[in-house]
Amino acid sequence: MIQESAITDSALVIDGDGDKLQKAIISISTNYIKNEDSLFYEPGQDLNFQWNNTAGVLTVLGVARPEVYEEVIRSLKYINLKRLAPNTLKRDIDIVLFDADTNSITYRREILFKNSFIDLDIPSAFTPNDDGVNDTWIITNLDQYEDSNIYIFARTGQKIFETKAQRHQWDGSSKGSSGASWYLLLRRFQIPKYEKVYKGTLTVLR
């Protein structure tokens, strides 16, 4: 799910010397994350829009009346492209306007995040019997939490499996696994970012 927020609906652009404006620079100046943060704009009004994904800067070019740039600024939206767990540090968005001779002061808006944690459904059993159905233990959407760690322990306390979130699929095999038709394991899963820890059992049915 893409998360978005309007930057401002109350922008008022006034040019004191009567010149037409020539440029606007809108930048995500604080805590910008490449490929996660973006600015959405409505193209039009014979203006040229250039988004710099490396720097988090949107440049608007074109000679136009102040009210045209005002309309552009009011239509801007901040977009967070990470579906589940965006970095929740605040973002500052700075806007500076230019005419032929001068530039405006910097107009700043803050984007604040609420806690964006989405609870996960962790399977309590799976059947690694090569029938093509439920053969691996998979936690849906866990790949969004790259720093998470997963541990599987035998009932004796021996750790038999450990992995990071991005490699979390498990086929039930390990040097300490049982050869029985089914066995009960202990699982522990933690997401450091949210100080979240899941503990429970995992039944393996062969």
The amount of helix comes to under 10%
Low-confidence region ranges: 176-182
Number of helices: 1
Per DSSP E runs of 2 or more residues, the count of β-strands stands at 13
Mean pLDDT: 81
Shape: elongated
What's the N-to-C terminus distance?
Answer: 36 Å
> Would you tell me the structural class of the helices and strands?
mainly beta
Characterize the largest beta sheet: strand count, sense, and whether it forms a barrel. 5 strands, antiparallel
Reading the helices and strands in chain order gives: EEEEEHEEEEEEEE
If strands are numbered along the chain, what order do they take across the biggest sheet? 4-5-2-7-8
Q: Radius of gyration, rounded?
A: 26 Å
Task: Classify the beta-strand content into a percent band.
Answer: 35-45%
Short overview:
Helices cover 5% and strands 40% of the residues. By secondary structure, it is mainly beta.
Give structural notes.
The protein is mostly beta strands and 206 residues long. Helix content is 5%, strand content 40%. The chain has one helix and 13 strands. It has one helix spanning 66-75; strands at residues 3-6, 21-30, 37-40, 48-52, 57-64, 77-80, 91-99, 107-111, 125-126, 149-153, 159-164, 182-191, 196-205. The strands form three sheets. It has a five-stranded antiparallel β-sheet with strand order 4-5-2-7-8, with helices on one face. The protein is elongated and about 80 Å long.
